[in-house]
């Protein structure tokens, strides 16, 4: 009974926060998505990645990276598998841009992330036939090269204190700008 009351309290707090100008904490944001709640209008306030669905943002940011043309891409992207659990390479020709956008968003939301954590996030389940499936981490080389590519264009930087990578000011500005344009396009489609 206590946990249900706590969830109602969190939900009511989240519902009160819809008209405010501050960003919503993680649990409230998940409640918003599960309840399909609309956030307040984006006109006159700053939007962040916290207020946008991951798939829409990643597709918009990957299109931006491809259109910009500055992201250095290794020569092996058309033949490499992204994990030992995969049978084939990615079928999407622009998968490197999509992975770069996903990595940039992940680091934006979590402040400091290393290659090991990204391997776990992008890992998948290995099909072992009749034996039970097991989680397998993704390729460290792919995530490391994506991080290095994002560092070269100035989106990420190395964090000396904690280790790992963090988002730069210019990278954060780009991500916020893409988030705002994506939300504005959604609002125009709704009208």
UniProtKB/TrEMBL annotation:
Q: Fetch the InterPro entries from UniProt.
A: Ribosomal_eS19, WH-like_DNA-bd_sf, WH_DNA-bd_sf
Q: Name one Pfam family in it.
A: Ribosomal_S19e
Know the name of this protein? Answer: Ribosomal protein S19e-domain-containing protein
Q: What are the entry keywords? A: Ribonucleoprotein, Ribosomal protein
> What is the scientific name of the source organism?
Aspergillus arachidicola
User: GO terms for biological process?
Assistant: ribosomal small subunit assembly; translation
> Which residue ranges are recorded for the region named Disordered?
158-191
UniProt xrefs under PANTHER family = 40S RIBOSOMAL PROTEIN S19
Kindly state one GO CC term assigned in the UniProt record: cytosolic small ribosomal subunit
Query: Which family does the record assign?
Result: Belongs to the eukaryotic ribosomal protein eS19 family.
Q: Ribosomal protein as a keyword?
A: yes
- S-adenosyl-L-methionine as a keyword of this entry, yes or no, is no
The cross-references to SUPFAM superfamilies, in alphabetical order and at most eight, read:
Winged helix' DNA-binding domain (SSF46785)
List compositional bias (Basic and acidic residues) regions by residue number: 173-183
User: Care to name a GO molecular-function term for this sequence?
Assistant: RNA binding
């Amino acid at each position: 009974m206590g946990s249900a009351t706590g969830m109602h309290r969190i939900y009511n707090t989240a519902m009160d926060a819809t008209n405010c100008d501050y960003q919503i904490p993680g649990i409230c944001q998940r409640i918003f998505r599960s309840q399909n709640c609309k956030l307040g209008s984006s006109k006159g306030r700053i939007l962040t990645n916290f207020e946008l669905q991951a798939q829409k943002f990643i597709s918009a940011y990957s299109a931006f990276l491809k259109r910009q043309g500055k992201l250095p891409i290794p020569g092996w992207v058309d033949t490499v598998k992204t994990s030992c659990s995969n049978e084939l390479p990615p079928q999407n020709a622009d998968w490197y841009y999509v992975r770069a956008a996903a990595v940039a968003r992940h680091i934006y939301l979590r402040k400091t992330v290393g290659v090991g954590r990204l391997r776990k996030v992008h890992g998948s389940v290995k099909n072992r036939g009749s034996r039970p499936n097991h989680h397998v981490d993704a390729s460290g080389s792919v995530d490391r090269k994506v991080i290095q590519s994002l560092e070269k264009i100035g989106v990420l930087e190395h964090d000396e204190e904690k280790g790992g990578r963090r988002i730069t000011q210019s990278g954060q500005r780009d991500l916020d700008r893409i988030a705002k344009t994506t939300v504005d396009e959604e609002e125009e489609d709704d009208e």
